[in-house]
Structure formats: C-alpha cells, structure tokens
Amino acid sequence: NNSVLSKSPNVMFVVRRNLLKHSINHIMNKKVLDRYLRLPLPCNKILATYVWIDGSGINMRCKDRVLDCVPYCPEAAPFWSFDGSSTGLATTTNSDTSLRPVAVYRDPFRADPHVLVLCDVLKGDSQEPAATNFRIFCNKLIEMHKAEEPWFGLEQEYTMLDVDGWGLGWPKGGGYPTVKYQYSYCGVGAKYMAGRDIVEAHERACLYAGCDFEGTNAEVTHASWEWQVGATVGIKAPDDLWMTRFIMNRLAEDYGVDITYHPKPFGMLHPGIGMHHNFSCVKMRSDGGYEFILECIKKLEKNHMKHMKVYSNEVWSNKMRLSGKFETAPFDKFSWGVANRGTSIRIQRETKAKGKGYLEDRRPGGDCDPYLVCGLLMETCLGGSSG
Ligand code: ADP
Ligand code: MN
Ligand code: MN
Ligand code: MN
Ligand code: MN
Fold it and tell me: Which residues form a coiled coil (predicted)?
C-alpha cells in the first residue's frame, strides 16, 4: 500500500498497481539545477543534512538545516526534532521527536564544507530511545566490552529495482533474465550486469564521506550487488553501514533507481539477499583464539532462535531466504563449519590454520539492523546484559 510505513517495494509482496510507473528524479534537467548550485552561499552558512532511521526500522529519512559553522564532531551539531507521527515513531498528539547527532560525515552530494549528520532518535517527552533505536543497546555493549576491542566487518547485499518494483534491467512484463546466476557474480559484460554506474559512484561517495568502506562486488542475481564496511572497531561499523545505506538510497534517486535490502525480493526460485556479520575480539585474534571462537559458537547455537527473531526486518522474509538453498543454512537449524557457505556460522580456512581470527555469522537478512545484530553478537559471545 501507499502508507508512509510501507517498506521499499519488492515485486513479490507489494501490490504493483500502487507503485510508480516512472521516476521523475533522473529526467529533471540537471543543467537548470546547476545554475542554482553555482550560486555562492553566504560565507558563514553551511548545509547539514540530518539523517535517521524511521519507524519502519529499515527506511531512512533526512532533512536539512543551515548551520553557521562546520560541526567537526557530533557534539558540535545541535540537537533537533521532527514530526515522529509522519515517520511511524509517534502519535499526532505527541509528535515532537528528538534527533541526537551521533556521527558527522562529509557530504558527498554537495562536497565540503557541507555535512551529513547521522542521528539516533529519542522520544520527545522522555528522551528514551524510540522504538527503532537499537544504537543505544549496541553502544552499551561496546562500552562494556571496550577492552575486548570488538571488530565488525559487514557485507551489505542489495538489489536495484526500477521504480515499478521490477528488477533493474530485468525483462518487463514479468520475465526473468535468461542468463544463469553464475555469470552475474563478480561478472563483466552488458548481458550480465546492470547498474554498475551506481556502484562506482557509491564507492567514491562513501570514501569521500569518511565511511570505512572496504570493497564491493556483483552478486549472483542480475542487478544485485554487495559492498563491505570494515573491519571497523566498535560502533563505527554499524554507524558507517547505516550511512552507506543512506548514501546508496539517495544516490540511486539521481538515477531513478530504487534500492531494496529485502532478503528474498524475487521469491523462492531466486537467490536471497543477506548481510553477513564478521566479528572478532582481542581473545579471538590472539593465540588460542580458535578455541574461544568455538566456545562462542556453542553460545550462539543455544541462542539461535532468539537471534533469528530479530535478524531481519520481518522474520518471515528472512525465513524465505534461509531455505537451505543458494548458500544458506535452514532458518530453524543452527550449523557451523570451516570454509562452508551452507552453514549458519562459517570459519575461514585461514582462521583454523592460524588458530586465531574471526567468525562469520551468515544468518542476518539484507534488511537487518546492524546495531541489533552486532549488539547481540557481543551480548551472546562476550556476555553482559544490555538492560
Ligand atoms: P566473503 O564474501 O568471502 O565472506 P568478504 O570479503 O565479502 O568475504 O567479507 C569479509 C569480511 O570480513 C570483511 O567485511 C572484513 O572486514 C571482515 N573481516 C576480516 N577480518 C576480520 C576480523 N578480524 N574481525 C572482523 N571482521 C573481519
Ligand atoms: Mn514544518
Ligand atoms: Mn562478501
Ligand atoms: Mn555476498
Ligand atoms: Mn560473507
């Protein structure tokens, strides 16, 4: 439906007649815009785009604020507020909701001195975390386990869609690409690839912004891709992941392309979309770390269903993805293995050989909240209640 809370469209589950037929953004005359972009701003004014996660837990919002000087750290950026009732986070009669700056990035859309300000959302009346604010949960655990220096490496897979909800470059009228999946993974060639300009622009934009952007590759499904953030210490990993999501969604607007992180956008016959979480701490990275990794895996097994309930935005869509096919382990059966991509947790061959390293949690869906997953990995493996 068209409610403000409807998630990014995906072909299987959205009533397609409600979707747009065309995107207007990329056909607007950029030369006209350029006239205005060339107007110099007053020398004491910069533009700050405040960015936050809305009540859907996956879509992001932004709005601009003119500041008198560049905030080089989040503490220097003012608190702000917005209408929580229009973003699924509050009621109309109690709608003022707070934005607390938590990280500042360079703005790749406008360039220096303008900034993007990542915020977490607090309820306006109590300053408690809003319903979809899991950053506080994550940050508490990171503070608690500071001595263990948790590192995260996040692999964000995603799919590019036309605004009509169908895969970018997929045959119109419900057809499927005829080329085999194997050709698209890390592929080259016009027949196999769709949307590389966006990938290229995104990579540059994220590095410019200051995200710990690490790499990118094409995925097995036509028009699906992946980027990696990490390996980054502490809260910067999930912060950067959310900011790289924002940059992707905003950038794809310029191309009239919609981005979805849905775990199973084209149904059961096609591969799914995940976000592997690679995780390590001092104990895992030091001699004897392999034994500690095995201990952690035992704890993860005990908590399997607890994790599965929150490892994607909607449990059922990740359940579809974790079918036991397309390099996944079944949703309700925990497993692990060395160099095995059909398991819940994979240990790299090198980690076993060296006796230390990291583990890869392959279970989170593409639309998971990395604050929640990173938080739970620390809570389960390293202990401590978040309260
Ligand atoms: P694959 O697709 O084979 O799983 P990728 O290169 O896409 O491999 O992802 C590997 C991830 O592992 C990267 O995000 C990287 O940052 C992360 N990583 C590597 N070493 C560590 C480590 N010691 N702790 C946590 N994450 C790590
Ligand atoms: Mn207003
Ligand atoms: Mn990968
Ligand atoms: Mn992948
Ligand atoms: Mn992986």
Answer: none
Local structure of residue 167 (DSSP, 8 states) = B
Tell me the pLDDT tens digit for each residue of 312-364: 999 999 999 999 999 999 999 999 999 999 999 999 999 999 999 999 999 99
Confidence band, pLDDT 50/70/90 cuts, at residue 55? very high
Picking from 193, 282, 278, the residue whose alpha carbon sits closest to that of residue 241 is 278
ipTM of the complex: 0.98
Ligand 4 centroid vs 155 CA: distance in angstroms? Answer: 7
Which residue among 216, 278, 284 has the greatest number of ligand 1 atoms within 8 angstroms of its CB, and so is best to mutate? 278
87 within ligand 1 shell (Cβ under 6 A)? no
For the cut 60, the answer to whether the pLDDT of residue 197 exceeds it is: yes
CB 292 within 8 A of CB 38: no
Q: Is 233 in the pocket of ligand 1 (CB under 6 A)?
A: no
pLDDT tier for residue 19 given thresholds of 50, 70 and 90? low
Distance between CA atoms of residues 351 and 336, nearest Å: 14
Average pLDDT over residues 115-138: 95
Q: Is 278 in the pocket of ligand 1 (CB under 6 A)?
A: yes
Query: Can you give 4-41 as a three-state secondary structure string?
Result: CCCCCCCCCCCCHHHCCCCCCHHHCCHHHHHHHHCCCC
Look at residue 115 and give its three-state secondary structure: strand
The answer, yes or no, to whether any atom of ligand 1 lies below 6 A from the CB of 274, is: no
What whole-number distance in Å separates Cα of residue 145 and Cα of residue 169?
A: 46
Tell me, in angstroms, the distance from the centre of ligand 2 to residue 179's CA.
Answer: 49
For the record, the structure tokens of 344 come out as 């819940």
The pLDDT value recorded for residue 18 is 54
**Residue 90 CA to ligand 4 centre (angstroms):** 36
**Of residues 108, 100, 105, the one with CA closest to residue 241:** 105
Better pLDDT: 296 or 385 = 296
pTM for this predicted structure: 0.94
Greatest distance between any 2 Cα atoms in the chain: 62
